[in-house]
Amino acid sequence: MNKILIANRGEIALRIMRSAKEMGIKTVAVFSEADRNALHVRYADEAICIGPATSNQSYLVGSKIIEACKLTGAEAIHPGYGFLSENPAFAQEVKNAGLILIGPTPQAMEIMGNKLSAKAAALKYNIPMVPGTEEAITNVEEAKTRAVEVGFPILIKAAAGGGGKGMRIVEKVADFEEQMQLAVSEATSAFGDGAVFIERYVTSPRHIEIQILGDTHGNIVHLFERECSIQRRHQKVVEEAPSSVLTPEIREKMGKCAVDVARSVNYVGAGTVEFILDENLDFFFLEMNTRLQVEHPVTEMITGLDLVKEQIKIARGETLSFKQADLKINGHAMELRVYAEDPLNNFLPDIGTLQTYQTPKGYGVRVDDGFEQGMEIPIYYDPMIAKLITYGKDRTEAIDRMIRAIEEYDITGIQTTLNFGKFVMQHQAFVSGKFDTHFVGKYFTPESLKSENEQEAMIAAIAAVMLLQNQKKIAPPSAAATVQKSNWTQNRREY
Q1: What is the dihedral of CA 154, 158, 160, 162, to 10 degrees?
Q2: Per DSSP, which regions of 279-383 are E strands?
Q3: Do 85 and 148 belong together in one domain?
């Protein structure tokens, strides 16, 4: 494998390219017209424009990506996450084109991409399930009867869903019919599939996921857990590894279950098996993500493994170079997703220009990003700017280092989730480990950040005045600086 195409953009495209470069593998970037000046385009050995800004005319058009492979001689495609990364039809197209997809088989994607077929596969190995239905339900009266049997509150979930879409919590039977119709409608709109199923609603859930790796020789291992319970709109914002609540015994049981879930579909590559943990520390299978996760860096930090390199090695047909007994947890890692969102306005996207963009530095701090100062956050894609990761010898040090890194991270021009991340790190519920997926609803209010924002704004205003006064005292340069234009554009090609 001498050249791979990265069918993605932003920080994940850069992150994959860096690992490939260390392995001596050439990289090809694809980009939309909105990403013409993006960092991943500059970094790649070659880059091809595949269409207009909207993703359904560029990053989601599999035929354009495959054609870009043929034009550049790329032998394999790494899909990253999002876009086509869990699309079994695209995976099959790649295979039919004689190319290698750095990921699982189309069959594994298809089974695990539907929550009902995923549950059916997992049941072969007696994986614990939340009480509920094992098949899609469309008849409202039949669904209502089953909901009463399971017991309220219940959760209505889209079979093809994700990110909280097609999901409804129902507290009492009188509300069931209306909520089911809303869930079916939303699922149909979002996924083109209105199938829903019912589960008992776990009232104080924690979101725990297990990273797995499987090679083409039947070897499957787990790389321990990540805790992803700090969420807004059912989407993760803070992740850590390991979890603060798992005992070694529960960790071993969850790891074995995750490996069995992967084995149920002969899984190949990197994947994540997700579980719900209740207040009694009983765990239940939730779903499997058949791709690299956004939060994979925290697993890399505690295991010392480069997951992208492992993915590439597996795709080349290599055997895993380690066994389960060789793996152990070292230290603790935290990750904050730095979004261009306004926590004071219900975490709505806040698109604009990065007037200031300075990342934190120092021991135990990692920033995976795809932007630089002066760049605009495109309105067309997910508003994540970066992933801020910290590592420490234990959880306390990782938290302290995260607070320091957040304070050093300087972004102006848009609102971000940095201050929210600091609020989380300093909150007693998080520090003590006594929290669940309702953390935001229970503890966070816009007023929590307003006073700190006002204080920071005052400090910034004072600094600006002082800077202006100092500039007046400095004489202008005697000659204009010579600017040399970069030749990075030479690697760009139009599709």
Answers
A1: -80
A2: 283-289, 332-339, 341-342, 348-349, 356-358, 365-369
A3: no
Q: d(Cα 289, Cα 13) in Å, to the nearest integer?
A: 19
Q: How many CA atoms lie within 13 A of 125 on its CB side?
A: 19
Q: 195 and 254 share a domain?
A: no
Residue 140: predicted pLDDT: 86
Residue with tokens 């006002």: 454
Residues 274 and 408 in one domain: yes
Which of 101, 22, 35 shows the shortest CA–CA distance to 69?
101
Give yes or no: residues 282 and 416 share one domain: yes
Instruction: Average the pLDDT over 320-324 and give the result.
Output: 98
**Alpha carbons within 13 A on the beta-carbon side of 248:** 2
The stretch 36-59 carries a mean pLDDT of 97
Half-sphere exposure of 312 (CA within 13 A, CB side): 28
Kindly state whether residues 211 and 190 are assigned to the same domain.
no
Token pair for 92 = 């099959």
Q: Find the range with the poorest average confidence among 116-120, 386-390, 463-467.
A: 463-467
CA 285 to chain centroid: 19
Q: Is residue 483 part of a domain?
A: no
Q: How many domains is the chain built from? A: 3
Nearest residue to 38 (alpha-carbon basis) of 442, 469, 491: 491
Greatest pairwise CA separation for the chain in angstroms: 84
Question: What is the distance between the alpha carbons of residues 342 and 348, in angstroms, rounded to a whole number?
Answer: 6
CATH number at residue 87: 3.40.50.20
Per the structure, the complete domain to which residue 328 belongs is given by 206-448
Beta bridge partner(s), residue 283: 277
* Domain final position from 200, 219, 242: 200
Do 147 and 84 share a domain, yes or no? no
Tell me which residue of 288, 232, 304 sits closest to 114, measured CA to CA.
288
The amino acid present at 341, given as its one-letter code, is E
Q: Give the side-chain half-sphere CA count within 13 A for 442.
A: 16
Please state the length of the chain: 495
Please determine, for residue 477, whether its predicted confidence score (pLDDT) is greater than 60: no
Cross-strand bridge partners of residue 6? 29, 78
Give yes or no: residues 302 and 424 share one domain. Answer: yes
Tell whether 212 and 196 lie within a shared domain.
no
Q: What is the pLDDT of residues 83-139, one digit of tens each?
A: 999 999 999 999 999 999 999 999 999 999 998 899 999 999 999 999 888 888 878
Query: Where in the sequence numbering do the catalytic residues fall?
Result: 291
